[in-house]
Amino acid sequence: MGVIGVQLVVTMVMASVIQKIIPHYSFARWLLCSGSLRWYQHPTEDELRSLAGKQKGQKRKDRKYNGHIDNKPLTVPKDIDLQLETKCITEVDTLALHYFPEFQWLVDFTVAATLVYLITELYYSVTQPSGEMNISVVWCLLVLAFVIKTLFSLTAHYFKLEEGGERSLCITFAFFFFVKAMAILIVTENYLEFGLETGFANFSDSALQFLEHQGLESQGPISKLTFKLILALLCSLIGAFLTFPGLRLAQMHLDALNLTTAKFTQTLLHINFLSPLIMVLLWVKPITKDYIMNPTLEKESVPLMTEQTFDTLRLWTIILMCVLRLAMMRHHLQAYLNLAQKGVDQMKKEAGRISTVDLQKMVARVFYYLCVIALQYVAPLVMLLHTTLLLKTLGGHSWWVYPEEDLPCIYELNSDSVMGAPPVAAPTPASVVETGARASVTQLSVALGGLRTVFSPLLFRGLFSFFTWWIAACLFSTSLFGLFYHQYLMAA
């Protein structure tokens, strides 16, 4: 109990930190209010009136109505010489932002869960406990649940709009990703090495043995066709949720490139945009693994690294790409905020007049939806990061690069090992009640140990490898479509 208590203490301390400290020292608030982001303030009516000059007088019948002046909406020329004033985002300004509580909770909880994961990994590397539950897995699963909830609410917002363009686009991409997932799932392991086939075969065999030990007759828990159909449906939902984040990322990427002039920053922006493609290629066996593991050098095939080392480097590559995307967040958000001035500059090229209310709404709308854009940028990043962490923990991978002869042994469970505990000795019957209680505990422990053999690291390795690859593939597909749309279709 003392060993398990270490993880419980870490969880309780972090829960207290979330409740007491994070509201005052919020990382999400710091991302927006650190002084690096500047937003454009909408002009007041007096400023617009002074810039437009004296407005043409109204007719008497329009001015007088029931004894008082009837003011019509003030309009100004679209080509007005208007320069918007900028201001650094403060904590008071964030109170008016849509979805700011959701953004703050998701980012701060992700930081807390990541800290719990790091502490737990350090604890496991020092003490190397066997057979106890890793509580950081629960934290990572909670993060993924909050991400899915946030993306669902953002996608549902588009379905509530009166215009059906966003709704149709989301449904179209959902069907596209469903067909794409079905096509990907029939590709053999020689090209995409997720390990789904091996994991599912291990899951089916272990489940059959578990059911036989329980005295149940079954042909198997689930057929392979049903298993892949469920995966395709989940992939379709993920693709629908990531449609608008990918489209928005493409627009911010183009605007960020135009905003910065430093070559190094532009290079990082290009790498950040192509990072999902790099992640996708890491699982394409003929391009990466076969070339690295068995390169052809002067008629001899000399492996550059072991398979375990390649898996570790693949995990680290994804982590570094996630860190790069977080570092580039400020450039993308500032590029989005500049849309206010960009819209005013575009308006100046048009003829006619515009009401002051519509002009103020056009400018203010950009800032008020900042957290929606921030969520669309952060949510896929958080989903990808914690899916990778689950792949490492549940898939039995390691963060360290070991020589082939010094690889750490992976603890495999079988029907004789129950949650890493030694076999329970036959109890000495002190009473009928005590004997029955001990028998129940023993039976429950055996059942839990059997379930752990059913859900083996091979199954989790295949599932989370596939979902990590799929999230990156969806991000790249939608952002590439958005790049084509904003670069060519909008320009035309």
Write a structural description.
InterPro entries: Transmembrane_161A/B. It is found in: Membrane. The chain crosses the membrane at residues 105-124, 136-156, 168-187, 225-247, 268-288, 366-391, 463-485. This protein is mostly helical and 492 residues long. β2 (64-65) and β3 form a beta hairpin. A two-stranded antiparallel sheet has the order 1-5. A two-stranded antiparallel sheet has the order 2-3. A two-stranded antiparallel ribbon has the order 4-8. The chain has 20 helices and eight strands. It is 66% helix and 4% strand. It has helices at 2-20, 27-33, 45-52, 60-63, 91-94, 100-127, 135-159, 165-185, 196-213, 224-241, 243-259, 263-281, 289-293, 307-327, 329-337, 339-348, 356-368, 370-394, 432-454, 457-489; strands spanning 38-40, 64-65, 68-69, 75-77, 86-88, 296-297, 300-301, 353-355. The chain has a domain at 151-402 and 434-489.
List SSEs in N-to-C order. HHEHHEEEEHHHHHHHHHEEHHHEHHHH
Instruction: Assign a percent range to the helix content.
Output: 55-70%
What is the chains' assembly state? single chain
Q: Largest sheet, order of strands side by side?
A: 1-5
CA radius of gyration? 29 Å
Number of helices: 20
Strand content: under 5%
Structural class: mainly alpha
Q: Averaged pLDDT, please?
A: 83
In whole angstroms, the N-to-C terminal distance is 67 Å
Low-confidence stretches: 57-69, 403-430
What's the main sheet like? 2 strands, antiparallel
Shape: globular
**Count of DSSP E strands?**
8
Subcellular location: Membrane
Family: Belongs to the TMEM161 family.
Protein name: Transmembrane protein 161B
Membrane topology: Multi-pass membrane protein
